[in-house]
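#onboarding

Welcome to the new folks! Below is a worked example of what a typical request in this channel looks like: someone posts a single protein sequence, and someone else replies with the predicted structure as tokens. Don't worry about understanding the tokens yet, we'll cover that in week two.

Example request:
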Amino acid sequence: MDADGDGMNDLQVEWLPGSAVQIKVTQPIGGTFETRGLCGNADGNPDNDFMTPQGLVTLDKDEFGDSWATKCAA
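Example response:
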């Protein structure tokens, strides 16, 4: 995925056996936007991974997943 429009892939999403997903930030993402979520703010610091949309960090995978849930249109 080219997140900043420079023609280079910035994020790599790989589906692994057993329904696991691996997400890699493959180069620094430029721009003035924030990143949050599974990779924290993509700064290489694992202490801010699993960040909720509210900016809180949780170690509980269910709490993390639920925090990002959206309502599906019928």
